[in-house]
Structures are given as structure tokens and as C-alpha cells.
Design a protein that fits this description.
heterodimer; A: alpha/beta; Cytidine Deaminase, domain 2; eight-stranded mixed sheet; 6 helices; 8 strands; 29% helix; B: mainly alpha; MPN domain-containing protein (chain A); EMC8/9 (chain A)
Chain lengths: 174, 290
């Protein structure tokens, strides 16, 4: 699986809420055996995962994706603790996405490797959800167009669905 | 109830900081930006009491040193080194390094610098000296079970400690013990009956339980939150709760629920017509689908 990956919004989303768990979705298109990820849409930040806003956000993103001839092809999750595993509070949303797109993956940040002195890129781990959550071997995912970590972490606003609800002038989905 | 960070004047910023504290929000970047300015220019106008509360919530104007603490914690989140150093120096200069509250902040600074062993040492010393007042430390070191237990013990004695009820609600919610989280949060409603954030948060917790009765309770509390302060968040909450209600056996075909849903969609569409018209189209297509 080749995943052309839109890294920047994820990195900014994580930087915007460093003390909280964050969750977002990946939009893209399937092309033969490839999944081309075109965008990352930040959805949620918080200590506690509240399904109300994630459900609503997923519905809104789906509607928008259809109009762009795209679909939700995966999700990303960054934990407040830096742990790379997907917690049980997040798995149900990943599975819902998978029912619409069987090849959907969830990306999480391997913070230990990403922020080691020898790393210049964010290191992600990918998971697929079948009967259980399984890690995808690194050599099955390629990330194209990744910029170095230092240039991705900019102090620019990246509004997720929650931020957008507080102030609808903040651009989110479009 | 004002919009967060509506303007950068003294009253608006102070009110925004207070709302974040009561509504359990972090909004680290804005807290640092506006809070630092407030402290730099107007600290003498804020109530200068030296009392630092631990788990007793103050619904009065925040004492100045609680604002220092709030901005300091936000600066840790954003890794704003200059602000961290300045505020910590001012806090230590005023209160010394022996205060447990100050040492907790020093421990948080060590964590932010990833000096975890040094942070743990600070926290363990505080716990040994004063196990009851070290309740918050339990959370910092990830001892959630004892954190919940100690909070419950504390609240048996200090039943009016609103911030402790809030903390306990959050701790239960993190463990997905939604009914316990809701029960604790009801104390927060009693203490802040005019705060729209509180009703929205309560509604969010109710929704998480996922049954006809709790969806209805969620919709009701989002509606009351909207009545107190017409927020987009409350509108989205009404829409989603109504949608969830309609998906249940008892709620299917409920005309009242349908009309509430349509009203909320029309209100939200109106908001977007003024701010982002393209979003209005997405809301309408979502409504047609439901």
C-alpha cells in the first residue's frame, strides 16, 4: 500500500494541542492497489474521547468528501502520552471507517523515534482493523511528500472540528 | 457569558481565563498570549490575595496568583520557554520554594523538560509530607485508581469543593465510567447554574451513555445551554442528540424530536450563511440525509 500522505495538518494539529489526545481522518482515493491520501482533516482534541463530536464530524466530512469525489480512507491518532498504540476509546471510530473503506488504516505517532536526535521526520505507525487491530509492516506504507519535522511544526492555527464549533470563522473542512 | 477571547481588554481576558478554568478547557496558546499580556500590564488590578486554593474552586474573580499558575501551565503546554522561566521566577520569588503548590509547578516544569526522574522525586516528597494535599500528584504520576479513591475521600469531608467534583468527573470519564462522571458533574451544575459550558459538558457525558433516556437528557441540556448562550457547539449537540434519538426504537417517528432537529439545522444554517456559506450547504445536505 502506498500512502501519499498529507503530513502537515497532522503535525500542526498535534502541536496545537500538545497536552491532549487528538484524532482526525484521512481523505483520499483508491487507485488500483494504491490508496492515495490527499488530505488530513483534524477532528477532535481532548483528554476524554467523546463520541458525540467525532460522530458528527465524521458525518460532515463524509458529506464533503462525496462532493469532492473522495472518501474517508483512514484516520490518525496522536496520544497525549506519546504512546503509539490505539486505545480502546478510539478503535470503534476506526472500525466504523473501515466498514465504509475496508483498506482503511489508522496512523499513530511513534514519538520516541520521531523526536530522537537522529530523526528528521515524523515516524508513524500504521494499523489495520480486522478482527483485531494489527500493525502494518513499515515497508508496506510509503510516505511521499513528507517535510522535515522542524519545518512542519509551525505556530500556525490549525482548527479542528471542536475549534471550529467555538468559532465558525475558523476554517475547518473547506 | 462572553465569547472566549472576544477582545483583549482586561475584563474580557480575565473572564475568558475564568471560563476556561470552570469549563475545564486548556486553549494553551491563547491563554499564554492573552494571559501574559494581562499579567504584564494589569496584575495590580487583579485581586492580590495570596491564598492559593488547591481543590476549592473559586467562582469569584481569580486571585492573581491563580492566573500566574494557569498561564504557567499553558506555557508548559506550548513550550514557551521565555514565559515559563519568567513566570516560575515570579512565583518562586513571591511564594518561595517550600510551598507544596510551587513545588508541584516545579515538578511539572521538570516533566516538560523530560527530566522525569527529577519530577518523580519532587512529587514523591510532596506525597510523603502531605498525602491528602498530594491528591493531584497522584494524577500527575498516573496513579488514577488512588487518585479517584483519594478524591472521593476528600469530597466526603469537603462536599462543596467544586473543583474536586470536576476533577473526579474527568477522572471517571477517562476511565469511561460515564454514570459516575455524570453524577459528579451534577455537583458542578449546582455550583454554576448559569454557566452554559457546564450544561454542554453535562450533555456530552450523557450522550456517551448511548440510550434513549440519556440522548433525551443530552438534547435537553444542550437546549438549555443554547438558551443561556447561543453557541454553535450547543446547536451541533442538539442536532446530533436528535439524530441519535431518532435512531432509537422509542424515538423513531417522534414529531417533536423531528421539529427540534429541523429548528436546530435552520439555526446552524443561518450562522453559516453569515460566516462560511459553503459550510451551510454541507449542513443542509447532512440534514437531508438524516
Amino acid at each position: 500500500m502506498d500512502v501519499l500522505y498529507a503530513a502537515k495538518p497532522r503535525a500542526k494539529h498535534g502541536y496545537q494541542h500538545p497536552d491532549q489526545n487528538i484524532f482526525g481522518v484521512l481523505l483520499g482515493r483508491k487507485s488500483d492497489n494504491n490508496v492515495n491520501v490527499t488530505r488530513a482533516i483534524p477532528l477532535y482534541h481532548g483528554r476524554v474521547f467523546l463520541n458525540l463530536y467525532i460522530e458528527m464530524g465524521l458525518t460532515m466530512v463524509e458529506e464533503h468528501a462525496k462532493s469532492q469525489d473522495e472518501q474517508i480512507v483512514g484516520s490518525y491518532f496522536l496520544s497525549e502520552s506519546g504512546a503509539a498504540a490505539i486505545p480502546s476509546t478510539v478503535s470503534p471510530f476506526c472500525e466504523v471507517i473501515k466498514t465504509q473503506f475496508p483498506q482503511a488504516i489508522t496512523l499513530t505517532l511513534d514519538s520516541e523515534k520521531s523526536y530522537s536526535s537522529s530523526s528528521s521526520h515524523l515516524v508513524m505507525r500504521g494499523y489495520q482493523h480486522d478482527k483485531s487491530t494489527k500493525e502494518i509492516p513499515q515497508n508496506q506504507i510509503s510516505y511521499k511528500g513528507e517535510a522535515p519535522v522542524t519545518s512542519m511544526i509551525e505556530r500556525a492555527e490549525t482548527a479542528d472540528f471542536l475549534d471550529h464549533m467555538e468559532d465558525t470563522n475558523k476554517p475547518w473542512l473547506l | 457569558m462572553t465569547k472566549l477571547w472576544g477582545s483583549d481588554d482586561f475584563n474580557s481576558v480575565r473572564e475568558s481565563l475564568k471560563q476556561l478554568r470552570q469549563g475545564r478547557g486548556r486553549d494553551a496558546q491563547n491563554t499564554v498570549t492573552y494571559g501574559s499580556q494581562l499579567l504584564a500590564k494589569h496584575s495590580s488590578r487583579i485581586e492580590p490575595t495570596e491564598r492559593v486554593s488547591h481543590l476549592i474552586d473559586s467562582t469569584e474573580q481569580m486571585p492573581v496568583w491563580e492566573i500566574y499558575e494557569q498561564v504557567f501551565v499553558a506555557a508548559l503546554d506550548t513550550h514557551d520557554e521565555k514565559t515559563i522561566e519568567e513566570l516560575l521566577l515570579q512565583i518562586i520569588t513571591k511564594h518561595g520554594q517550600q510551598s507544596k503548590r510551587v513545588r508541584t509547578l516545579m515538578g511539572m516544569r521538570k516533566e516538560q523538560q523530560e527530566k522525569y526522574a527529577e519530577a518523580e522525586e519532587i512529587y514523591q516528597k510532596i506525597l510523603q509530607e502531605d498525602p491528602v494535599n498530594g491528591i493531584a500528584i497522584r494524577r500527575a504520576i498516573g496513579d488514577t485508581q488512588n487518585y479517584i479513591r483519594l478524591l472521593n475521600e476528600y469530597l466526603r469531608i469537603y462536599m462543596g469543593a467544586n473543583e474536586a467534583w470536576l476533577e473526579l468527573s474527568e477522572a471517571y470519564a477517562e476511565q469511561q465510567m460515564w454514570k459516575s462522571a455524570i453524577t459528579c458533574y451534577e455537583e458542578n451544575i449546582l455550583a454554576n447554574p448559569q454557566n452554559h459550558h457546564v450544561y454542554s459538558r453535562y450533555a456530552e457525558l450523557c450522550y456517551a451513555l448511548g440510550s434513549y433516556d440519556y440522548y433525551k437528557l443530552a438534547r435537553k441540556n444542550f437546549a438549555y445551554s443554547y438558551e443561556l448562550f447561543p453557541s454553535t457547539r450547543a446547536l451541533y449537540g442538539i442536532i446530533q442528540s436528535s439524530t441519535a434519538l431518532a435512531s432509537t426504537k422509542q424515538g423513531k417517528g417522534d414529531k417533536e424530536n423531528e421539529s427540534i432537529f429541523e429548528w436546530a439545522v435552520s439555526q446552524l444554517t443561518e450562522v453559516y450563511q453569515k460566516t462560511q456559506p459553503n459550510m451551510a450547504k454541507i449542513v443542509q445536505s447532512f440534514a437531508l440525509k438524516e
